[in-house]
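Hi team,

As requested, here is the filled-out complex form for the BTX run. I kept the field names the same as last time so the parser does not choke. Let me know if anything looks off before we queue the next batch.

— J.
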Amino acid sequence: ESTRNQLIQLLAKNNEEYISGQVLSEKLNISRSAVWKHMKELEKDGYVIEAKSKRGYRFVSYPEKISENTVQWGLQTNWLGQKVIHREVTSSTQIIAHKVAKEQKGHGTIVIADEQVSGRGRMNRNWHSKKGDGMWMSMILQPPLPPYLAPQLTLLTAVALTETIEKLTGLTPRIKWPNDILFDNEKKCAGILTELQAEQDKIQYVIIGVGLNINQQKNDWPEDVQKRATSLQIETGKQWPIREIIQYFLSSFESLYDEYMKQGFLAVKTKWESYGFKIGDWITIRQLDKTRQAVFYGLADDGALLIKNEAGDVERLYSGEIDWFHEAKSN
Ligand code: BTX
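And here is what came back:
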């Protein structure tokens, strides 16, 4: 790793505290005047650095750009995102994450891109991920869980994402089962894609992909997507800082994940239901080639979708897609 990157990491890890030129020169094994020269280079790149005699150096602010280092600066997590892989452009962060997970595991490693040229949704659908407009991220996790519980992680991710949007923007996002985040206008601002590598009774790793539309305008999407999509910018009328949203989401996800590992699914379920969209309403359920109507009852204790069918019996569903009744009628 380059001296420059090591230097950035040392300053970033130290947050707002000063770190002396002496300590830096010892840790990096370079002279103090070389340290000073590196600082001047960093300033040219948009880092704002404060230097105080007797105390040393500290970062005041980072360039707005997302990078492995800027994501870590001020990050409040214990294990999630402690390793960051960043690409300006890539096909899909899911592909990189799978590769990394296969080679070196890496529980908690995250992959972020400014732009994905073939971002993917579920069932090989396309996910629009234009440059600098959103959070396009994949998280590598190795939860000590049997594979059948993996869908709970998708629900957990939806809760963390919803909390993040609500806390930072004041908007009221809702979750459409199992994994879309939308607003009361039924437009979608985020999606989650959970991909699993497992043995019969044990998860080897999970890649959770999260796409959140942040600064797009309506015209940034093709027409078919415009009808269903929205962004934080469209909903609030202002631009949002992507780096801070990433950091807030990582904290929020980590604490919910830790709580879930200690206490089980109940805490997630309660929160999920408080954000759940159309609970108590008629919905349309599509499974393979079958379509039918039922009342959306809520979540079962294990995260399954509870519905009351036309005969009045309550059923559990583990997969499928739901739509609102009026959408199904108009199709
Ligand atoms: P999904 O299958 O539920 O949603 C995909 C559908 O949503 C598309 O068919 C299209 O109609 C619509 N759509 C496409 N792009 C957008 C967009 N930007 N905003 C709103 N609606 C859109 C949801 O799949 C899962 C998406 C996960 C994306 C992340 S990004 C990081 C990671 N890398 C990657 O390739 N995928 C994940």
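Two things worth flagging: Residues 92-94, 116, 119-122, 125-129, 136-138, 180, 188, 191-193, 209-211, 213, 225, 228-229 surround BTX (CB under 6 Å). The first helix runs from residue 3 to 13.

Thanks,
J.
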